[in-house]
Design brief:
The complex is a heterodimer of chains A (111) and B (112). By secondary structure, chain A is mainly β. Chain A contains no helices and eleven strands. In chain A, strands 2, 4, 5, 9, 10 and 11 form a six-stranded mixed β-sheet that branches. A five-stranded antiparallel β-sheet of chain A has the order 1-3-8-7-6, with no helix packed on it. Chain B is an all-beta fold. The chains are: A mainly beta (111), B mainly beta (112).
C-alpha cells in the first residue's frame, strides 16, 4: 500500500518563505505531484518530480529524494492568495495511473 | 486555455435515486480520471479511462459505473444513492497516462 504524510497546518506571513514537507512510502514509485486547492475548488497542478532534485517554477519549487521517500514544496515571497491546502500526491505502479493523495497541508498566510 | 468541464456543478438527490455526472476533458487529452472528495478529506481515486477503455479501478462502489465515449467525454453513473455519497466529485484529464492530471471544477453532490 501507500502511506503519505504531510503536516496538517502551517502558518506564515506575507513575503516570507515556507517549506511544506511530504514523506511517502510506496512499493513502485512513479512520480510525485504537488497540487494547490482552495476550499471547495478544484486542485490546481503545481509541480511534478520523478527524478531526484529540485524543480523550480516561479515562486514555487519542489524537491524530491527518492532514496529518502521525501519531497518538499517551497513557496517564496508569500502572498495572501497562497492561503490554501497543498496536496502531495504520488503515483505508484501498482495503482496504475491513479494519484494517491496525502491529507493535505492547510497554509494560512497573514499580513 | 480550455479546461476540464464538468456538469452539473451542483446536484441534489434523495436516497436511493440515481445521478449521472458528466466530464469533458481538455481537448486532445485521452485519459480521464474520477475522484471523490468528502468534506475535509483528500481526493480518493475512483476509476480512470484511457482511449475509451477502463484503465485503472480504485475505490469505486459497485453501485457506480462509468464509461468514456468516442469523443473522450466521460460519464459517472451513480445508483441507489446513499447519504455517504455526498461529496465533491472531480474529473481530471491528462495527455496519455504519464503526464500531470488537470482537474475540473467538480460536481457537488448532496444526497438527502
Amino acid at each position: 500500500g501507500q502511506n503519505i504524510d504531510q503536516p496538517t497546518e502551517m502558518t506564515a506571513t506575507e513575503g516570507a518563505i515556507v517549506q511544506i514537507n511530504c514523506t511517502y512510502q510506496t512499493s513502485g514509485f512513479n512520480g510525485l505531484f504537488w497540487y494547490q486547492q482552495h476550499a471547495g475548488e478544484a486542485p490546481t497542478f503545481l509541480s511534478y518530480n520523478v527524478l531526484d532534485g529540485l524543480e523550480e517554477k516561479g515562486r514555487f519549487s519542489s524537491f524530491l529524494s527518492r532514496s529518502k521517500g521525501y519531497s518538499y514544496l517551497l513557496l517564496k515571497e508569500l502572498q495572501m492568495k497562497d492561503s490554501a491546502s497543498y496536496l502531495c500526491a504520488v503515483r505508484d505502479r501498482q495503482a496504475g495511473t491513479a494519484l494517491i493523495f496525502g491529507k493535505g497541508t492547510t497554509l494560512s498566510v497573514s499580513s | 486555455a480550455a479546461g476540464v468541464i464538468q456538469s452539473p456543478r451542483h446536484l441534489i438527490k434523495e436516497k436511493r435515486e440515481t445521478a449521472t455526472l458528466k466530464c469533458y476533458p481538455i481537448p486532445r487529452h485521452d485519459t480521464v480520471y474520477w475522484y471523490q472528495q468528502g468534506p475535509g478529506q483528500d481526493p480518493q481515486f475512483l476509476i480512470s479511462f484511457y482511449e475509451k477503455m477502463q484503465s485503472d479501478k480504485g475505490s469505486i462502489p459497485d453501485r457506480f459505473s462509468a464509461q468514456q465515449f468516442s469523443d473522450y467525454h466521460s460519464e459517472l453513473n451513480m445508483s441507489s444513492l446513499e447519504l455517504g455519497d455526498s461529496a465533491l466529485y472531480f474529473c481530471a484529464s491528462s495527455l496519455a497516462r504519464v503526464y500531470e492530471q488537470y482537474f475540473g471544477p467538480g460536481t457537488r453532490l448532496t444526497v438527502t
